[in-house]
Please model this.
Amino acid sequence: MYLEKGKVRAREERGCGYYWLEIESPAVAAAAVPGQFVHVRVGEKESMDPLLRRPISLARIEREKGRIGLLYRVVGRGTKLLSSVCEGAELDLMGPLGRGFTLVEKGKRVAVIGGGIGAAPLFPLVAELVDRGAEVKFFLGAANHSHLQALQPEKMIRGGELVLATDDGSAGFAGRVTDLVRQEIGPFRPDFFYACGPVPMLRAVQQLMAELSVPGELSLEERMGCGVGACLACVCKVRTAEAPFTYRKVCSDGPVFPAGEVLLD
Amino acid sequence: MYLEKGKVRAREERGCGYYWLEIESPAVAAAAVPGQFVHVRVGEKESMDPLLRRPISLARIEREKGRIGLLYRVVGRGTKLLSSVCEGAELDLMGPLGRGFTLVEKGKRVAVIGGGIGAAPLFPLVAELVDRGAEVKFFLGAANHSHLQALQPEKMIRGGELVLATDDGSAGFAGRVTDLVRQEIGPFRPDFFYACGPVPMLRAVQQLMAELSVPGELSLEERMGCGVGACLACVCKVRTAEAPFTYRKVCSDGPVFPAGEVLLD
Amino acid sequence: MTAQVNLKVNLGGIEMKNPVTVASGTFGGPEYAPYVDLNRLGAVVVKGTTLEPRQGNPTPRIWETPAGILNCIGLMNPGVEVFLHEHLPFYRQYDVPVIVNIAGNTVEEYGLLAEKLNVEGVAGLEVNISCPNVKKGGMAFGTDPAMVREVVAAVRAATPKPVIVKLSPNVTDIVAIAEAAATAGADALSLINTLLGMAIDIRTRRPALGNVMGGLSGPAIKPVAVRCVWQVAQAVDLPIVGMGGIMTAADALEFILAGATAVAVGTANFVNPRATLDIIEGLEAYCREEGITDIKELIGAAWK
Amino acid sequence: MTAQVNLKVNLGGIEMKNPVTVASGTFGGPEYAPYVDLNRLGAVVVKGTTLEPRQGNPTPRIWETPAGILNCIGLMNPGVEVFLHEHLPFYRQYDVPVIVNIAGNTVEEYGLLAEKLNVEGVAGLEVNISCPNVKKGGMAFGTDPAMVREVVAAVRAATPKPVIVKLSPNVTDIVAIAEAAATAGADALSLINTLLGMAIDIRTRRPALGNVMGGLSGPAIKPVAVRCVWQVAQAVDLPIVGMGGIMTAADALEFILAGATAVAVGTANFVNPRATLDIIEGLEAYCREEGITDIKELIGAAWK
Ligand SMILES: Cc1cc2nc3c(=O)[nH]c(=O)nc-3n(C[C@H](O)[C@H](O)[C@H](O)COP(=O)(O)OP(=O)(O)OC[C@H]3O[C@@H](n4cnc5c(N)ncnc54)[C@H](O)[C@@H]3O)c2cc1C
Ligand SMILES: Cc1cc2nc3c(=O)[nH]c(=O)nc-3n(C[C@H](O)[C@H](O)[C@H](O)COP(=O)(O)OP(=O)(O)OC[C@H]3O[C@@H](n4cnc5c(N)ncnc54)[C@H](O)[C@@H]3O)c2cc1C
Ligand SMILES: Cc1cc2nc3c(=O)[nH]c(=O)nc-3n(C[C@H](O)[C@H](O)[C@H](O)COP(=O)(O)O)c2cc1C
Ligand SMILES: Cc1cc2nc3c(=O)[nH]c(=O)nc-3n(C[C@H](O)[C@H](O)[C@H](O)COP(=O)(O)O)c2cc1C
Ligand code: FES
Ligand code: FES
Model:
């Protein structure tokens, strides 16, 4: 875990409020695994407003080049400020943070399921899985064709099979990505799955995979303070034997959790 | 008094922490007189830190071109943020604010006395006085040669006689500007004077001119909230008949006050 | 065609055309007229007025803090007589309720002020028992329920006009203070006044403000202010003017949802002289987008 | 050759190599070890510890506000036994005083906690009578001088170790509370805990935090914190740990000049994990530039 000034090497406006940043951050890149994130300071260095860092997943990990990629969507002040950084600017990063995805062994069949901007941490995961010789099917859903285009899935992954869905049917399968998964999952018979996206999507995936007894992992989001496990702000509920539930920290116990343990309410 | 988005048309780093901005701000420029100021929002538009606007004098007024010039020195966060604006950027300005200098009639002899960045509001004053046919002698003091160069007095005024002093003697008269004035004022015998600069300088000028019975005006600074006379934060002491002193507002009763009225403590 | 949004509210007898007013001491009178048409405001609240003229505190009177400001103006004002004869005529040109903020050194002075201000053109009184910047009276009146009752009763007895009591957040239990004001006959409450704070100038190693301590206002205090409104609105059945760090319509909505009937814009005027108007327009836009036809539906909606 | 600056301070019996520690609940234990060498800190204060394990409050537990954050963690902790057996050994590897922040539901629980923590490796106790985020006890203990005396006396009787009492700013008169703690045998005071605040999410029209109200921390509250330290330091003859919005060495100096012997860094850790070290270095640099050889010269220098 490093505190690093990352240099912005490329910046791309992707439409629909999506942005892509390529950042030179050798220490973070060298240590990172898919599913981890960086905690990014936004805004003027000396300004106390906004105050907190923003967690953003690693959407690309290039260890040799010492670069990472961030793909994000403007939803509020912090992401808006982040969208206005220029090439050459320095970003104050902490990372890589959190527990990433558990990588399956060579030869396994895996379903990777992403919804919208939730695809971000799945891109380097697919890359890594393909490199390891897994058979990857990447189900990706978005609101519509423009949103899909903003994610640029074809460009972001090399290898693996990509299957697309849009809520409004403007590209790929017409309907929710979980419906697409339900339809295709039978013949594919995955050994493992990974999912990231909005909570309703995660809930649907969790239930479907439980029905099919396919193990897997979910990547969660929570509002964060420290990002390192110190403040206890970012908890999620997980099942335990003793209590109805116990809290675990998304930033340091996660953001990736075994799908069977997580309680999504 | 307008609320205007001024467009930065030129930006110059002058050395010693001095900066020059030329701003397209037609409404402000059209209404402005020398001695007035603009109240400038610094920092990110939506950021609440820093919060307050910063008062900066009009160091140039170009009514026909619809432009104003600001000359300022970086002393804290606000001026630092202001120093990093780019050409083409928009500045959120309120102005022109305050009561400017009283302009003497044609043919009068006037001494204009500035110390350091206090010269800023005196530049357009000298221009206006010269245009009106006054005989202007501009005494300008600074810490040293580099500071003088940063002010670029030769470039900033057209007409009038410029007499320079530096504290360390690296250019012009060696010593404080008030000592220079004291030395030269006898033969010049001004009808009126104007001064702007640090308080100790203003105090010395005030005393000297009182001795010589030369009337004049001082431009003051105080920490400001509103800049328009509403919050009562920016008061200075002036003499009154009834009480030992009374408070007047620098932002709206000033920043320019008759030298004989001001109590500098 | 979009439906009209009704922004009208009634503040303890004062009819406001919209819920937006200004915080005492932050708006002056004619000073913001070049930026804001006073007729568009729900009401105007004037600077704290005392029986005799006051000079206020020595400078510096203002100090910037993270997302806030400290001030120690100290109720500088020309006194009630000058207000009545020189300032009130200015406001009479406008069609906007004028609320006069009053501060006394003694209980009697509050009563006297209320009497003197029982004139046409004054829509109501805001009783300032929460000023942290004066030696006599000021905040002391607002931190003890018994004193609050005394002051409010004195004003109540002296005027038929709506009485709004302005509360200090510098107390252990703001609900107890609010209840005391209600018992003594307040028609409305306004909250919050500034938080007691201070800063030290590390260059001089001395207090930054001329009066050592000062009142903290601005966005920094918004969470404390929203909490106070939330607590008082649920406990006391009086309309509330919420204030403390309101910069935008979103901020104003937090206060309304917490239970405020009206909101006052203070420090924001210094930053954005058009803040009041931007907020009025923003409230209307929010209602329109959310399909709300009467802003009163939103008052206290976060707990109702 | 520049003279050495002596940064050592003594906090009611706890020797600190410099005045900089961390605020309870904001530093965890091993979590910041990759960024900060714990041996460089003046002391470490651990998260609020209770007799039994606590789950804490529902989410969201944190909400950003202007220059501040609201939190409602609610004293989530594994309980004192787990602390003693699993966490304390971690700290024993370091050469840094460990101060344990304790919170009880009853006066007796405070005493019991103090007893259990009377072990090697614990340098002192910080008695939290000011947590705004728990139902039982918490802030209630810290707002009434009589209760403060009871709690502090119970802890005092149960331990020979230095007792630091952590005060709440949510009171009318913090000096009275501080005096009560001093009378009951406190060795030092720490102030301030968070301000009681809240926020409303205008999209959902509901309170933003899972527990409705929360504690406000960060730069926003610094002026209130400095004021509290200023007031208490002049009235009570006990060393003070100042905290509330300290982000930089300049902020830390404000507290020291106001009268704090030590300072604690809280929310700043989340923003800049190296904040503590930057502050230690900055304090040393300031002293050097100002020709100060012992930082103790600066304690309370703004009023001495
Ligand atoms: C582990 C993790 C990885 C993430 N990866 C990505 C990514 O790769 N791309 C991307 O676009 N977004 C990602 N997010 C979501 C991203 O952090 C939020 O969109 C962002 O923090 C919003 O900040 P804002 O200032 O624009 O919004 P605001 O709503 O103004 O933020 C206010 C506060 O709420 C927090 N917040 C708001 N939304 C979220 C959220 N969904 N999750 C957590 N905190 C939130 C902010 O961090 C901030 O503290 C990730 C979140 C987590 C927890
Ligand atoms: C009428 C007037 C005209 C001015 N004209 C000029 C000019 O033309 N060029 C120039 O360089 N400076 C000018 N100043 C001073 C300038 O306003 C301050 O240098 C600036 O506000 C400092 O802001 P900061 O954030 O950099 O410093 P900080 O010290 O971080 O500011 C903190 C706060 O103190 C206030 N403050 C600090 N110094 C001063 C000061 N000297 N006067 C008033 N407020 C202050 C700031 O406005 C801010 O609110 C003028 C001041 C006044 C009152
Ligand atoms: C410069 C200044 C002067 C003030 N004067 C008064 C006053 O005279 N009477 C009063 O009741 N409140 C006064 N206040 C408090 C405000 O009316 C308001 O309660 C407080 O500033 C919180 O609102 P804000 O954060 O929007 O500014 C003053 C505040 C400021 C900043
Ligand atoms: C996330 C969080 C958790 C906290 N937990 C505790 C705690 O367990 N015990 C306690 O006494 N104070 C706790 N506090 C209060 C801090 O110790 C400190 O008093 C307060 O945050 C002000 O300092 P700051 O502004 O530097 O954060 C907590 C604060 C935060 C932000
Ligand atoms: S964000 Fe602090 S514990 Fe997870
Ligand atoms: S700055 Fe508000 S009155 Fe002058």
